[in-house]
Amino acid sequence: MENNFEQFIKKAKAMRLSKDEKTQGRELISRYMLMNPVRFSDQGRHTLQRSGFLAFITKNNFLYKSMAIAVVLLITMTAGGGISFASESALPGDLLYPVKVEVNENIRSVFAVSKEAKVEWKVEQAERRLQEAEKLAVQGELEGSAAVTVETKFEQHTRAFDQIIAQFTAEGNAEATASAHSNLEAALEAHARILAAIQDSGRNGAVTSMLAKVQSRAQVTTQARAEAEAMVSASTGSEVRVAAEGKLQAAKNKIAETKSFIAKSAERADAEAIAKAEAKVVVAEQAVAAGEARIAAQAYGEAFVLLQGGIRSAQEAIVLLQGDMSIRADLNLDVLGEAQENKKESDAETSTESNAEIESETRIEGDVENGGIDVGSEINFEEEINL
Amino acid sequence: MYYCLMEKEFLEAYEKYADAIFRYCFFRVSDEEKAKDIAQDTFLKTWDYIAEDKNIDNIRAFLYRVAGNLIVDEYRKKKTVSIEDLQEKGVQMRHNTKERPDTHIEAKEVLEAVGKLDAKYRDAFLMRYVDELAVKEIAEILGETENTVSVHIHRAAQQARQILRYGE
């Protein structure tokens, strides 16, 4: 009998990945690491096209395309990932942008096997397009073909999202539907605020149309989420209990993640943005406490909805804080001159609006450091966070 | 340089623990392909965490915890498919069986035995005997006291001996 036992352990130990699988896994992880480097070590956007030679190439469509193809081939051949990594901060119109969306994102898609992972990835892709739109807008470059590219791709991602949702619906998986809508909603709400802030700062171009698109989609998503949640709430039995309990854990994890992100961002973000993000976390924590109480009272459907709301609040805090930092970085980097001009306007706005609420000392420091610029717009969107 | 080092360490962690994490997933989701996906995802999610510049004291324990969470998610999605259900249907072994016919059969045997273990004790037992984790680490991963973990390991080992004596 002892022999059997040892045999069993031996056989269990023999369960392992094959050599090929491991090599493949390692390869994927290496690439993933390159695409998702440790944060705060990012050098910002690679503005290659500014130099004369590359500007010539980007203007010449044929050359541009052949160059892009060459770059793609180069990457495929060397499998080095260096350029792939560099391209991560590319924007539409940049030489490396096709690498970002055609190569990097296709590789990322490989990871998304399950429908849940796929739908999550679609949300992330939509967010990536919104981040690009924001960066372009801040630089006053969200116009022409760049704007069209971003908008079209954003729509493609949301359409793909809808297709996966349709599959969930066909399977009667209300829980997955609700979760997916909820995630998309959090992303859209936060980005709508960022875009609105950029628009308020007086930047034109296609900001308005992009914002309208995001807002209308957010509205639809909120409604769809509420409907899916109603279905989850209506279901009884152990399924909804398991769903609520799972959500509780997920919400707790999300809050922990958000807190940690806020702590890590403390140095880079300004005090006010941090305070606003923290306020969101408080809202999330309250939702979790309420959800936990509902679980204790065996009202699992209600708990699910509350907890999901908590996750959204926490997620929005992250997105807004990221937006705040990235806009700030861009402003320092690229549009300082223009920004100085805007300062007067926005200061006039902010002095009345924000001082009442926020300790003004930190504000002033922030202004000096950043050359002032869009601080006005940041305040605008941060103020809206409370709504 | 900082992050080159992290990358290197992380790849080393993959080398060392990928098999164990895969096994851990496999014994709990009973589907080889799914277990591979979850194991892969475990490493990506862990990297996401590292990429946020957060500290991980014990990467091995951390990986198990992430895998554990992902498995819970999986169950939640799938509305719980028990090992028993799968065994009735004949376990899905979709993977390249041509290449490894022995492993295929053995995996099924092992899985059957594992499926008969009390779920409450199973994890601690497998971590101790198969993955050779220290009791302390297991306690950390499962959020139990070392004492409880030791008891669980002991009980599962007894069960396993019983199953292997009468089961075959």
Characterization of the model:
With 387 residues, chain A is mostly helical. Chain A has a domain at 28-33 and 46-111. Chain A is built from 16 helices and no strands. Chain A has helices spanning 2-14, 19-35, 52-59, 61-78, 82-86, 97-111, 115-138, 144-171, 174-200, 207-234, 238-265, 271-296, 300-334, 336-353, 360-370, 375-385. In chain A, helix 9 packs antiparallel against helix 10. With 168 residues, chain B is an all-alpha fold. Chain B has a domain at 1-92: Rna Polymerase Sigma Factor, Chain: A, CATH 1.10.1740. Chain B is 78% helix and 0% strand. Chain B is built from eight helices and no strands.
Give start-end ranges of low-pLDDT stretches of chain A.
40-60, 332-387
- Overall geometry of chain B: globular
Quote the average pLDDT of chain A.
Answer: 75
User: How large is the count of helical segments of chain B?
Assistant: 8
Alpha-carbon distance between the termini of chain A? 68 Å
- SSE order of chain B, one letter for each helix or strand: HHHHHHHH
Question: How large a portion of the residues of chain B is in β-strands, by DSSP E?
Answer: under 5%
In helices, the fraction of residues of chain B equals: over 70%
What is the average per-residue confidence, as pLDDT of chain B, rounded to a whole number? 79
| Quaternary organization | heterodimer
The CATH class of the domain at 1-92 in chain B turns out to be Mainly Alpha
Which radius of gyration of chain A do the C-alpha atoms yield?
Answer: 23 Å
- The tally of helices of chain A reads 16
What structural class is derived from the secondary structure elements of chain A?
Answer: mainly alpha
Largest interface: A-B, 49 and 55 residues
Rounded radius of gyration of chain B (Å):
17 Å
Counting DSSP E segments of at least 2 residues, the number of strands of chain B comes to 0
